Amino acid sequence: MEASCSSHTLPNHDIQAIDSLAMLPSQPRIAIIGGGPAGLTLGLLLHKREIPFLIFEGRQEPTDAELAKPSGMLDLHEESGLAAIRECGLYSRFSQLTGECSEAQRVSDKDGNILHTDEGELSERPEISRHALMNLLATSLPPHTIKWGHKLLSATSSTTPEGTEVELDFGHQGKLPFDLVIGADGAWSRVRRLLTNVKPHYAGTQNITTNITQLAKYPHLAELIGCGSFSALGLRHGVMSHRLSQDAARIYTFLTLPDEGFPASAGLAGCTAAAAKSKILQDDTLLSRFGPVVKELFAVSCDQETSDNPGALLDIKPLYTLPIGTSWKHQSNVTLIGDAAHLMCPWAGEGVNLAMWDSLLLAHAIIGAHQAVATNGGSFVSALDPLLLDFEVDQLKRTKEKAQETYNNGQMLFGENGAKAFAEFFQSAYGTTQ
């Protein structure tokens, strides 16, 4: 393949991508779009079976400094996330990276009165930071298999004498052809457009993310939130936290609001966290009616966020979800995993687990097709087609159930008295009373 037929040359990373593509065998040419947990897990599982692939990720490769910054905590479940980690052969290294946040839970009402506490004794879902998980997966792959800085602009299907293929356009000269394209490219997946016109819709919730990096200065707040997860709920809003390493905590403030464009309409879009806090704390429709200690938790996190990142704007985003049961007409050479397939809110902690479960089961299908071709010959795409269809049918069944559970959890958490409902949920699960 020629890099260009004009006088301009391709950027080095594009030349590398095309060179890597040329090194792939005639079949299968597999592209994984997205270098999040889903894409990296799938790539690693294929790598272990020596099946060639390329991962294309729009972001630049993260630096050590970026990976050292606070990130959200993810709890991995035995049948999904942990099963994928085990099959990747990473469980021992993974275990060494857990423990920053315990599995303990604390639930309070809007005034900070504790309604439920536990030490996570019935849970078997270890917590790991998103950055640690991503780094673990990425560094376990050969560097040439991940093409950083490649943002997909479009994907098109075309028919060739050999069958159908998908061409990927990353905005530079030349399109790259593949036999199989897996969309692991998140909420606003461009690969999804090859399969369905369904798009995510606003879930009715705004999320503000802040961090406290010097929690020892506030022992009463450290006592309030505990060593694991904390939730202060009421009036259809919530202030939640996860403990992090190095005396830090990440604070998530969820506001139930009908206005998708709330950050702009409320004048918060151009504010720092410190500048925005008074507007949120003084508004009766937001956190004004929460108790002093919960409001202080939010205020301290805003002040420290701005102190640690001077000039950075408030991190406030609307949450989106795909309709429950989103499906598409099966195609033999394109499929979706993770948020691209079944975006949902974080109320059940299923996002990363479903994504890695998708990767595990899709890898089994690809490995099966690859082995069939090695034994019997023929086309990889033809061998994969029935296995891919079975994967998608199973995926829809699994994710539809979890999406409904996630929706139900959101209704429980963000009702008028979400704290009472959430505490009763835990007490029923643990068979105790508080």
Detailed description of the structure:
With 434 residues, this protein is α/β, with parallel strands linked by helices. The chain folds into two domains: 12-99 and 130-200 and 323-411, FAD/NAD(P)-binding domain; 202-320, 2-Layer Sandwich (D-Amino Acid Oxidase, Chain A, domain 2). The protein is built from 14 helices and 17 strands. It has helices at 12-23, 37-48, 64-67, 81-87, 91-96, 130-138, 219-225, 262-265, 273-281, 292-308, 339-342, 351-376, 380-413, 418-430, and strands at 30-33, 54-57, 73-75, 105-109, 114-118, 127-129, 146-148, 154-160, 163-169, 176-178, 180-183, 201-212, 229-234, 237-244, 248-256, 316-321, 334-336. The strands form four sheets. The chain has a seven-stranded mixed sheet, with helices on both faces. Strand 9 (163-169) and strand 10 form a beta hairpin. This is FAD-binding domain-containing protein. Residues 30-196, 331-367 form the FAD-binding domain. It comes from Aspergillus keveii. Keywords: FAD, Flavoprotein, Monooxygenase, Oxidoreductase.
List the main descriptive attributes of the protein structure presented here.
434 residues; alpha/beta; FAD/NAD(P)-binding domain; D-Amino Acid Oxidase, Chain A, domain 2; seven-stranded mixed sheet; disordered N terminus; monooxygenase; flavoprotein; FAD
List the helices and strands and how they pair.
Layout: H1 12-23, E1 30-33, H2 37-48, E2 54-57, H3 64-67, E3 73-75, H4 81-87, H5 91-96, E4 105-109, E5 114-118, E6 127-129, H6 130-138, E7 146-148, E8 154-160, E9 163-169, E10 176-178, E11 180-183, E12 201-212, H7 219-225, E13 229-234, E14 237-244, E15 248-256, H8 262-265, H9 273-281, H10 292-308, E16 316-321, E17 334-336, H11 339-342, H12 351-376, H13 380-413, H14 418-430
Parallel strand pairs: 1-2, 1-11, 2-7, 4-13, 11-17
Antiparallel strand pairs: 3-6, 4-5, 8-9, 9-10, 12-15, 12-16, 13-14, 14-15
Helix pairs in contact: 2-6, 2-12, 4-12, 9-10, 12-13
